[in-house]
Amino acid sequence: MSSIVEQDIHADDHHHHAPGGGIKRWLYTTNHKDIGTLYLWFAFIMFLVGGSMAMVIRAELFEPGLQIVEPNFFNQMTTVHGLVMVFGAVMPAFTGLANWMVPMMIGAPDMALPRMNNWSFWILPFAFAILLASLFMEGGGPNFGWTFYAPLSTTYSNDSTALFVFSVHIMGASSIMGAINVIVTIMNMRAPGMTYMKMPLFVWTWFITAFLLIAVMPVLAGAVTMVLTDKFFGTSFFSAAGGGDPVLFQHIFWFFGHPEVYIMILPAFGIISQIVPTFARKPLFGYASMVYATASIALLSFVVWAHHMFTTGMPVAGELFFMIATMLISVPTGVKVFNWVATMWRGAMTFEMPMLFALAFIVLFTIGGFSGLMLAITPVDFQYHDTYFVVAHFHYVLVTGAIFSIFAAAYYWLPKWSGVMFDKKLANWHFWCSLVSVNVLFFPMHFVGLAGMPRRIPDYALQFADFNKWISIGGFAFGLSQLFFLALLIKACRKQGEPAAAKPWEGAEGLEWEIPSPAPYHTFETPPVIK
Amino acid sequence: MSQQHADKYYVPAQSPWPIVGAVALFLIAVGAGNVVMQHHKGTDGYGGLILSLGMITLMVMLIGWFRDQINESMAGMHNAQLGQSYRQGMSWFIFSEVMFFAAFFGALFYTRMISVPWLGGASNNAMTNEVLWPTFEAMWPLTQTPSGLVTEAMGWNGLPLINTVILLISSVTLHFAHVGLEEQKRGQLMWLLGLTILLGISFLGLQVEEYVHAYTEMGLTLQSGVYGNTFFMLTGFHGLHVTLGTILLIVMFCRVLAGHFTPKNQFAFMAASWYWHFVDVVWVMLFIFVYVL
């Protein structure tokens, strides 16, 4: 794609603001690498917090009957697990990757608005402190599902809903500021010669993701505001008695929610599009079509929201429209999967850790994509809706999709961040244990779902007992497998391992591999020239 | 853009203000949440105190952050590329504001076009009407809710029309104040900017009068069904934005008095004026869809 002709690397921090010592460095920082690191660690900690909530859920569902937790607490666990994973783990992890990699990939010295960058990160720990603290309040935390449908979140919710609303507000502010920073960085900070169609695909996918974030996070803010006033100030947006409609909530929420799910997968597509060419030692097949496919997916995401609402009630013409629009998305998505496979076709493949995760992504995400296609078909969705089939679908796209891509990215760029190669033994344990357990965990959910087991219920009928036992075993195993990754990260942060070369992957291309490992605190203070 | 770089990038120094801002938002969220819960339960608590503390922290943060920013800009530390980043950032911020209002306009259109007619039996919903509220008749403005709340509708010719004229004029005066800045006519800049601020304040005053009128004489409140909900949420959020815009313009006025801004260095003025034109456009939409139609 692009290569450096000449550049000026500043490994020396001879002038302004080298990293200060101690806690102030992290509190006051304006450095995209520091902030990227903060985002990534925060996301990983949230991943473990949300994961332990999933362990509670799986422990309760290990056997039929109520044994470990109260149903109300079970509901709080499903709710907060979803919120923490979506807003605390996946989104901040991608933002962290964008912070680290986008400036280095486009030859910029930093993000466009470095101080706001720091603000958007530091809002997050506070927002999640509020959300998690609400679990310990009298009456408990949010218990209405991460989708907080009215009237569950209005008429029937507990008082801590107010804290939920305001914590979502400041999370949203953080996301919007983060997205504005990324989009302005990409539009305005590219090195001379780095034209749009030369940008690495990770940058392209984040560019489009940032647009989606700026477009829909404010809509989420509107939705939670209406929930707040409906619950506490006597409005009736979502109450038919005052002329409103609970279905209106679902429309507003999913107008945010569907673009949101692409916010959580488009950067993953970008990561896979970086990694597959490196380890196939071939340029990405169909670069331009990848860009157009990403843009098409983003645009279509605005007109498919009601496929989450087929059973809610809608005129048949509406159901047909949303069914067809949704199925249309499989075309650009298919283009992407085709291009990845075509990139590997007759490539000189090797299977280092990033590639293993990328391959697992391609296979397993495609399974999630196909179950999504099944769910898109209105008449059959009436059977699948609100069952474990849906849970299986979105965990395939989010865990083996988004989170596997984040692992792939971490393994791919960790040598650049830390300056040492990661512990390959731990990495292998992490990958193979995760791969096996995640399928034991999520694959049987398809079957119990098709057989009619409803989601978000702490108890279930006896015929689902065997499958659920296996699902729980898979769940615990998957949770424990992440400890290998934790150990590996700690080792890398303590610089234990053989030193990494500037370009540790033979087939890698791009500006980030032209600077030393670990990347110096400031890179590209004068712009590199790109041919 | 990437072709016109300065050959040296500008990377700002570390700053304590972002973390102060994060603490401020934390206090505001906790405080506001507690205020709402106390109000709901009718109990006392520290919500109000925490909220005010948060607001004060936010104020301190804004003043400190902008002071640093202005000093750096006046010292000539910012380059053209940074100015471009600021302008693009502001444009995207305004786009996000557009989407925030879009959520409430969406709610307005949905209730007008779908939920209220359906409750009245339109489309294939005859049984909805029959079973839920058989006496309910769909209408807009919804002056009688299905559960029987009665209210009056706000007319458009009167205060709202005057307010529309005021805001439209204020956009024009602000534009010519900007022209004054561009052409180095400080007098024109100053008095037209001052006039814009006065127009903004009069808009807010009239809106308060309208609210008082609605609450005391018309029985139109935030609680009077979706008509009152959409009316007060849309005009209320717009009013908050006008308030913020007016504060921004007052700050700009002080900076003009202090001799800031040149045709080349005027990002803050431009951003404030973009923001003002944006709230103006939102008002025109409001006037059409909330008041007239």
From TrEMBL, chain A:
InterPro entries from the UniProt entry: Cyt_c_oxase-like_su1_dom, Cyt_c_oxase-like_su1_sf, Cyt_C_Oxase_1, Cyt_c_Oxase_su1_BS, Cyt_c_oxase_su1_dom, Cyt_c_oxidase_su1_bac
Pathway the protein acts in: Energy metabolism; oxidative phosphorylation
Record-linked PROSITE patterns: COX1, COX1_CUB
Top-level class of the enzyme under EC nomenclature: translocase
Pfam families: COX1
Domain spans labelled Cytochrome oxidase subunit I profile: 26-531
EC number: 7.1.1.9
Entry keyword annotation includes Cell membrane: yes
Known catalytic reactions: 4 Fe(II)-[cytochrome c] + O2 + 8 H(+)(in) = 4 Fe(III)-[cytochrome c] + 2 H2O + 4 H(+)(out)
Keyword Heme: yes
Localization (cell): Cell membrane; Membrane
SUPFAM superfamilies in the cross-refs: Cytochrome c oxidase subunit I-like (SSF81442)
Protein topology in the membrane: Multi-pass membrane protein
Highest taxon above the source species: Bacteria
Keywords: Cell membrane, Copper, Electron transport, Heme, Iron, Membrane, Metal-binding, Respiratory chain, Translocase, Transmembrane, Transmembrane helix, Transport
TM helices/strands, residue ranges: 38-59, 79-98, 119-137, 162-189, 201-228, 248-272, 284-308, 320-342, 354-377, 389-414, 426-450, 470-490
NCBIfam families: CtaD_CoxA (TIGR02891)
Protein name as catalogued: Cytochrome c oxidase subunit 1
Organism encoding this protein: Pseudobowmanella zhangzhouensis
Lineage: Bacteria, Pseudomonadati, Pseudomonadota, Gammaproteobacteria, Alteromonadales
From TrEMBL, chain B:
Keywords: Membrane, Translocase, Transmembrane, Transmembrane helix
InterPro entries hit by this protein: Cyt_c/ubiquinol_Oxase_su3 (IPR024791), Cyt_c_oxase_su3_dom (IPR033945), Cyt_c_oxidase-like_su3 (IPR000298), Cyt_c_oxidase_su3-like_sf (IPR035973), Cyt_c_oxidase_su3_a-hlx (IPR013833)
CDD domains in the cross-refs: Cyt_c_Oxidase_III
Subcellular localization, as worded in the UniProt entry: Cell membrane; Membrane
Domain Heme-copper oxidase subunit III family profile: 5-293
PROSITE patterns: COX3
Broad class of enzyme this protein falls into: translocase
Enzyme Commission number: 7.1.1.9
Keyword Lyase applies: no
Transmembrane segments: 17-37, 49-68, 89-110, 158-177, 189-206, 226-253, 274-292
Topology within the bilayer: Multi-pass membrane protein
Primary location: membrane
Domain of life, source organism: Bacteria
Family the UniProt entry places it in: Belongs to the cytochrome c oxidase subunit 3 family.
Entry protein name: cytochrome-c oxidase
